Every structure is written in structure tokens, then in C-alpha cells.
């Protein structure tokens, strides 16, 4: 059967230092074992040839947040993003690099700068939260590596360690206990999304895994997760009508802050505006919160110690299955495959007995192990991520 023989192959004479497992690996494994077999570094390590520009914007946005809430080398998140653009262009110009700038990188840059400018405006009336520092190093872009109490055993008796790899975008300390236990830590994750999502937090595997990982690595309790979303849309002020008045249309998307600024510009003071405008502004204020408006939303998600422990046990059980040499990699087809899976056509051809190998070569390529190579070209010096290592002592199931 397809890919039943694509097992993890290790050169016993030159074994890797460790085998990495990530939350994306687990999500793919749960969703569809065949897709996991194609994409996981444990098996075929393939990915789509065509890279989406929204990933490029997200990478730069993460770097801008990393810098701004860390050392703040560039003084402004927009300047940090422009440094990323500069570094990425130099990185892509190298002959040994296959990455390319997205065709629409200029439009993506313009959008990113608008998002980051608005973030600073958004922060003026909200708690910026406090980055946790260890020995003078801000806990931003933390590469967390937890060695699990199980390994991959070679025929020669050598055991290769298994590490659970995570990247904490930012670790926050709640000194005053505003959101939970005083002195507790929160793992923060930046999301640059086309649509702001909510309602999935109770079952979100990243939330649970990162809280478990943080609790393993840090000497302070992890209270939960800050799910911080940026809507990939330029924040717009209210429409100005031909009469010069400010619109009160219900289908208009704007924020209380931007609407208030527009009234101030038009009437000198917001309270001097017509009653309809003041009512509209107050409605916008009532719809927002200390953590949310139409363009930015952060959710404070608690995770109990019991839930974190249960997550650790589930991770060990899943990893043990991933390492099973007799695991059958069957597909899990759903109605979403046509738009949600880059290998959908290949998968159908497998089951039809057609020449899927040729098509796979056209749409997929081995994934590089190099991460963030563009950082070495940053105009103010390479900013290496902080690395946290730990050996997990959770009992093997």
C-alpha cells in the first residue's frame, strides 16, 4: 500500500543528534496519517513548492513583535519589519538559497506596516503586558526543546533522543495577578489572520501543548495562554459623506478610537458632534473591550495544571504511535480536502492506482532544515532566538 514502506530511516553510522516533534506534526497526524507521512520530517519531509505570501507576512510580523517587546533594537515595529524585508531580499539573492520573495511582497509590506502602526495606537489605551526576562534576556521567540522519556531505538542498540520543539512568541509575567496567579507566566502567540477566530480555545492543541511545555521549562507556574490575533486588514476610519458629515452606517467597519479621532477632527471635540454620531461612537465603545476591537483581539485562556499534565501524557502516547514501524498510513478524506490539502490530487491518484509519483514530484519538494536564515542579513546584526532545553521526566506510558 502507498507509503507503508516509507519508514523513518536513520544512518546508524551517522545518526542525528535528536528527532524533533512539533505541534504541527501532531495536528497533521490526527487529521490524516497519509498527509502526515508525506509532510513529517519523520517520514518523507515534503512540502508544497508554492509558498503563500501570507506566511511571509506572518514571519515578518512575528519578528517585528519579537523586537518591539524584547530588546527593541529598531525602536518601532514598522522599522523592524522593514529590516526583515531588507534581510529577506539579501537572503533570497544568495545562490545557495531556493527561497524567493513573494510576487506581491510590496503589497504585503504595505499591509504589514498599516497593521503594526495601528497596533501602537491600540496599545495606547490597553495593558501592553509585561515580557518576562531571564538573566537580561527577553523571553521572545523562545525556541523551547523538551527531551521526552522515549527515544528511537536503532538496530545497533543506539537510542536517538526525541525532542518536542516549540517556539514561544512571547512569555509574559503577571506580576500583580491581574489575570490569574500573581507571579504566574503566560505563553503569548501572535496570529496574523484573514479572519479573527474564537470559540476553539477549549480544544486547541497548541494552547494546551505550549502551556505544558512552558510548565516544564520555567521555574514559575504557567497560568495559561494569550492568543493574540491581528486581522490582516488596514484599519479604516469612518466614511466622510459628501455633506462633510461622518457616516453612521451600520455596515461600516471601524474602531471606537478611529471614529472618535474623526469626530475630533471634524468638530473640535467629539462631544460637539451630532447626537447620532455620539451614539454611534458610544456603541462602538460598548462593543469593544480591554482586549478586543474589530482589528485586534487577544484572548486570555486559562489552562489548569491537571489539563497540562493530561496533555503531556497525550503527547507521549502520540509520539509512541508515530515511531511505530508497522503504522499503516491510511487517508482520512473529508469534504475539506479539495481546498485544505495541497496533496489532494496525489492522494486521489494513489487510490486510483495512477501515476501519482510523477505528480508528487511536480507539486512537492523536500523541506529545508534551515530556519530563519534571513536573520544573518539583518542591518543591525543577527538576533538569535533564545533557546530553552529540558529533559522531561514524565513517566512513559
Our count of helices gives 12
CATH class of the largest domain: Alpha Beta
Biggest β-sheet strands, sense, barrel: 7 strands, mixed
Low-confidence parts lasting 5 or more residues at pLDDT below 50? 1-6, 393-397
Radius of gyration, in Å, reads 24 Å
Beta content comes to 15-25%
Instruction: Give me the count of strands.
Output: 11
Give the fraction of residues assigned to helices. 25-40%
H-E order: EHHEHHHEEEEEHEHHEHHHHEE
What sort of overall outline do the alpha carbons produce when their principal axes are compared? globular
- At CATH's second level, what is the architecture of the largest domain? Alpha-Beta Complex
Question: How does this model look, in words?
Answer:
The chain is of the alpha/beta class and about 400 residues long. The chain has two domains: about 20-230 and about 295-350 and about 370-390, Lambda Exonuclease, Chain A (Alpha-Beta Complex); about 235-290, no CATH class. The protein is about 35% helix and about 20% strand. It has helices at about 25-30, 35-40, 55-70, 75-90, 105-125, 205-215, 255-265, 275-285, 305-320, 335-340, 345-350, 355-365; strands at about 20, 45-50, 135, 135-140, 140-155, 160-175, 185-195, 220-230, 295-300, 365, 385-390. Strands 1, 5, 6, 7, 8, 9 and 11 form a seven-stranded mixed sheet that branches. Helix 11 runs antiparallel to helix 12. The longest helix has 19 residues, at about 105-125. It is globular and about 80 Å long. Mean pLDDT is about 90; it is low at about 1-5 and about 395.
Amino acid at each position: 500500500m502507498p507509503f507503508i514502506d516509507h519508514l523513518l530511516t536513520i544512518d546508524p553510522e551517522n545518526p542525528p543528534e535528536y528527532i524533533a516533534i512539533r505541534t504541527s506534526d501532531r495536528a497533521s497526524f490526527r487529521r490524516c496519517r497519509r498527509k502526515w507521512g508525506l509532510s513529517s520530517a519523520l517520514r518523507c519531509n515534503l512540502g508544497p513548492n508554492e509558498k503563500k505570501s501570507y506566511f511571509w507576512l506572518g514571519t515578518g510580523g512575528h519578528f517585528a513583535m519579537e523586537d518591539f517587546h524584547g530588546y527593541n533594537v529598531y525602536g518601532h515595529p514598522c522599522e523592524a519589519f522593514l529590516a526583515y524585508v531588507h534581510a529577506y531580499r539579501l537572503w533570497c539573492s544568495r545562490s545557495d538559497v531556493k527561497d524567493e520573495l513573494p510576487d506581491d511582497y510590496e503589497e504585503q509590506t504595505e499591509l504589514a506596516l498599516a497593521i503594526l502602526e495601528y497596533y501602537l495606537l491600540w496599545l495606547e489605551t490597553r495593558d501592553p503586558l509585561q515580557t518576562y526576562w531571564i538573566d537580561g534576556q527577553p523571553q521572545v521567540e523562545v525556541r523551547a526543546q523538551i527531551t521526552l522519556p522515549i527515544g528511537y531505538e536503532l538496530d545497533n542498540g543506539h537510542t536517538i533522543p526525541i525532542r518536542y520543539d516549540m517556539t514561544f512568541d512571547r512569555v509574559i509575567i503577571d506580576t500583580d495577578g491581574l489575570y490569574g496567579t500573581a507571579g504566574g507566566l503566560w505563553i503569548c502567540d501572535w496570529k496574523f489572520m484573514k479572519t479573527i477566530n474564537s470559540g476553539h480555545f477549549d480544544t486547541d492543541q497548541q494552547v494546551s501543548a505550549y502551556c505544558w511545555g512552558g510548565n516544564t521549562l520555567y521555574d514559575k507556574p504557567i497560568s495559561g495562554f494569550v492568543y493574540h490575533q491581528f486581522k490582516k486588514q488596514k484599519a479604516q476610519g469612518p466614511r466622510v459623506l459628501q455633506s462633510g458629515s461622518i457616516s453612521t452606517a451600520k455596515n461600516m467597519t471601524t474602531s471606537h478610537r478611529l471614529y472618535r479621532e474623526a469626530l475630533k477632527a471634524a468638530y473640535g471635540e467629539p462631544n460637539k458632534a451630532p447626537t447620532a454620531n455620539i451614539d454611534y461612537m458610544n456603541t462602538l465603545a460598548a462593543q469593544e473591550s480591554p482586549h478586543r476591537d474589530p482589528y485586534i483581539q487577544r484572548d486570555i485562556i486559562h489552562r489548569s495544571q491537571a489539563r497540562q499534565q493530561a496533555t503531556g501524557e497525550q503527547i507521549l502516547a502520540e509520539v509512541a504511535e508515530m515511531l511505530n514501524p508497522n503504522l499503516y498510513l491510511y487517508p482520512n478524506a473529508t469534504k475539506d480536502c479539495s481546498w485544505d490539502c495541497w496533496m489532494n490530487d496525489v492522494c486521489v491518484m494513489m487510490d486510483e492506482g495512477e501515476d501519482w509519483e510523477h505528480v508528487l514530484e511536480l507539486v512537492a519538494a523536500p523541506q529545508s532544515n534551515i530556519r530563519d536564515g534571513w536573520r544573518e542579513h539583518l542591518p543591525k546584526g543577527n538576533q538569535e532566538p533564545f533557546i530553552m532545553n529540558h529533559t522531561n521526566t514524565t513517566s512513559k506510558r
